[in-house]
Design goal:
Layout lengths: L1 H4 L2 H17 L2 H17 L9 E6 L1 H7 L6 H13 L4 E4 L11 H7 L4 H8 L5 H12 L2 E8 L10 E5 L7 E3 L1 E3 L3 H4 L4 E4 L12 E3 L1 E4 L2 E4 L1 H9 L4 E7 L2 E6 L5 E2 L6 E3 L9 E4 H5 L12 E6 L8 E3 L2 E3 L1 H14 L9 H19 L5 H26 L6 H33 L5 H9 L9 E13 L1 H7 L4 H21 L3 E6 L2 E6 L8 H25 L6 E17 L4 E6 L1 H16 L3 E4 H4 L8 E7 L8 E6 L2
Parallel strand pairs: 1-15, 1-16, 2-3, 2-16, 3-7, 4-11, 5-9, 22-24
Antiparallel strand pairs: 3-6, 8-14, 9-10, 11-12, 12-13, 17-18, 19-21, 19-22, 20-21, 22-23, 24-26, 25-26
């Protein structure tokens, strides 16, 4: 189970699950994406300003001067007249005039008990402030009024003709009803539009729908109405294709870049850079008309308890400032756009990069994989930021960065887990057959160990007890004693072999099989094998002294050494295997050990072992012998004493 959890297939499964989460595009994924774009806007807000938008705030100081809100409409008429006379191109009211003026003389008369004759006489004298406000709006020809939305309501006709091409309505935000200014005030406007922001999971304003539909009718936004009026158009054309809304036009050459839901992205600039004025400043004697002349004006509330502050990438701000930012985005032409196919392209790119990482990470070291991770993540982030900063393209790097990082982390952990298992396997397999220093060297660099098998030149040593049968007969009634004796012998011999860098292949009863030059390369394998044989005879003499003192039988041995090519690696079945060697040179070493008794020599060495180390040890030629399985005679030697 642990092996599966740290296998490449588990990484593939995790990668597939992450891709599924990205395709699902949940609110969490969207929020991560939007927060990334917010960071882009915080790092580099829009630098270019049109210098054509002025924000007029109705502040708490204004309320102290002109009374509580809502103001009488004749005060609003005076404010509008001052703005229009100063040369404003358009005046947007982010204020909903949905109710008649309660301070109007006409409305006051309706609430007072009196005869109809008296009410008619007073009505000719008292001021109808709504009529005054509407007249001022109409005469200026510059007012764009706000409509609101609600869950239900009476259907109202749109102020602007909407031409639909394609299946438009399913792609637009739908609401149950609309709240418009009073009929009298509406009559004075040059345009009316809804003023809403797109719903976001984290309530941060980043987009504004430029079109919505209610009860089968399409209504424009205030922003779109500004574009229409400025271009002298009387209609709006909406084109939908298979992926959603494609274009929103007010003329052949003028429109608003939108996404598939007819939303425009707001490219925010530093709010402190905008011209802002108070109502008192405009209505006062020291009115600076240059702050209004030739500009689009947005009027809204900025008094505590009356204004609704909304979150933006630059923090909390007023509704009229958001409208100003949206208008300025259009006026500067610094649009933010995201193609309808962006999600598809991002998912495909992410999947390909993930596949590349899944293939590469298991095959490279951490020293390479870390720079690779930094390069990939840095490249994704940098490319996305540059697309935003220089082209206004919104590319989402957030989930791709998370996706690649998790794949890298999982793959890297798998590498560590695999290496750890391999080190434990090496320790378990070799700790009793190799010098501890060699085991640590293999654990540090497992690549030294080619477990799949390889052919290489090696030196082999076989050591067997000569005359073992008589010894075993003496222990016929004491098998435990025989086992103890054999173990004392094998331990002494094993210590010598391991101390000289040899690998214990196996114990076969009273016989030891060892080899040199694997699993770790050792160019002195011939020399070390002969050295081991000599030291084994010395160790045996010491052991025999102890055995004699204990009244135990003496041990004599025969040693055969040969050098040649052999296949070394893990040998065995899938269920059980050992690190071992096979080959003709191995068999010959065994035959040489068997011939030691006949030749009367303790150590018998083959010609290939003697070769290249004649100057290290003095060798005596014994004879040319024919061993089982060989037709040609073989020269054999021993070490001169």
């Amino acid at each position: 189970m642990n092996k599966f959890l740290t296998s490449i297939w588990m990484v593939v499964i995790v990668a597939a699950l992450l891709l599924g989460i990205r395709i699902d595009n949940s609110d969490t994924v969207k929020t991560l994406r939007y927060k990334t774009w917010d960071t882009f806007q915080t790092i580099q807000p829009r630098q270019l300003l049109s210098d054509s938008v002025t924000v007029v705030n109705i502040t708490e100081e204004d309320l102290k001067t002109y009374g509580q809100w809502p103001w009488p409409r004749h005060v609003m008429a005076m404010l509008h007249a001052r703005i229009a006379d100063a040369g404003a191109l358009l005046v947007n009211y982010n204020i909903l005039f949905a109710e008649p003026d309660r301070m109007s003389g006409v409305n006051y008369l309706k609430s007072m008990p009196m005869t109809n004759e008296l009410r008619e006489q007073l009505g000719n004298v008292l001021l109808d402030t709504d009529a005054v406000f509407s007249t001022v709006l109409k005469e200026s020809g510059r007012a764009v009024l706000m409509m609101g939305v609600k869950n239900d309501g009476i259907e109202l006709p749109s102020t602007t003709q909407i031409i639909e091409k394609g299946n438009v309505k399913p792609w637009l935000y739908e609401f149950g009803g609309i709240v418009s200014p009073t009929m009298r005030i509406s009559a004075g406007s040059i345009g009316m539009g809804v003023n809403i922001t797109s719903p976001e999971p984290d309530a941060v304003v980043r987009k504004m729908p430029v079109l919505i539909h209610i009860n089968g009718k399409i209504y424009p936004s205030m922003i779109l109405e500004n574009v229409r009026v400025l271009n002298g158009s009387k209609r709006i054309k909406v084109i939908a294709k298979e992926h959603g809304i494609d274009e929103v036009l007010v003329s052949k050459k003028a429109g608003i870049p939108v996404n598939h839901n007819a939303e425009m992205y707001i490219n925010y600039a530093d709010p402190e850079l905008y011209v802002q004025m108070s109502a008192t400043e405009i209505l006062g004697n020291n009115f600076n008309e240059n702050k209004i002349k030739g500009r689009i004006v947005v009027v809204g509330m900025d008094a505590a308890g009356l204004s609704v502050l909304k979150y933006t990438p630059h923090g909390l701000t007023t509704d009229q400032m958001i409208t100003a930012q949206a208008l300025d985005t259009l006026l500067t032409g610094k649009y933010l756009t995201r193609t309808p196919q962006a999600d598809t392209y991002e998912i495909i790119s992410m999947a390909l990069l993930g596949l590349l990482m899944i293939i590469l990470i298991p095959r490279v070291s951490v020293l390479f994989s870390v720079p690779l991770l930094v390069f990939v993540l840095g490249g994704i982030s940098y490319a996305s930021y540059m697309a935003y900063a220089h082209k206004g393209f919104l590319v989402d790097p957030s989930f791709a960065v998370l996706y690649i990082f998790l794949i890298w982390s999982h793959s890297t952990y798998n590498n560590f887990a695999t290496q750890s298992r391999l080190r434990q396997q090496i320790k378990k397999q070799f700790e009793h057959y190799l010098d501890p220093g060699m085991v640590k060297k293999l654990q540090k660099d497992p690549s030294l160990l080619k477990l799949g098998g390889e052919t290489k030149t090696m030196t082999f040593l076989f050591c067997d007890i000569r005359g073992f049968t008589p010894i075993s007969e003496k222990y016929k009634g004491n098998p435990a004693g025989l086992t103890k004796l054999i173990n004392r012998f094998l331990t002494r011999m094993t210590d010598v072999i391991i101390a000289n860098g040899g690998t214990i292949d196996k114990f076969m009863g009273d016989c030891i099989m060892a080899f040199w030059n694997a699993p770790i390369e050792n160019m002195k394998h011939r020399e070390l094998a002969v050295k081991s044989a000599l030291e084994m005879t010395v160790a045996l003499s010491e052991l025999n002294m102890h055995l004699q003192a204990e009244g135990l039988p003496q041990i004599n041995i025969g040693i055969g050494i040969n050098t040649g090519d052999a296949l070394v690696g893990n040998m065995g079945s899938e269920q059980r295997f050992d690190y071992s060697v096979i080959g003709d040179a191995v068999n010959l070493a065994s035959r040489l050990e068997s011939s030691s008794k006949t030749l009367g020599k303790t150590i018998v060495i083959g010609e290939n072992t003697r070769h290249t180390i004649e100057t290290v040890y003095p060798f005596d030629y014994i004879d040319s012998i024919t061993v089982k399985g060989k037709s040609e005679a073989i020269k054999v030697y021993t070490v001169a004493t």
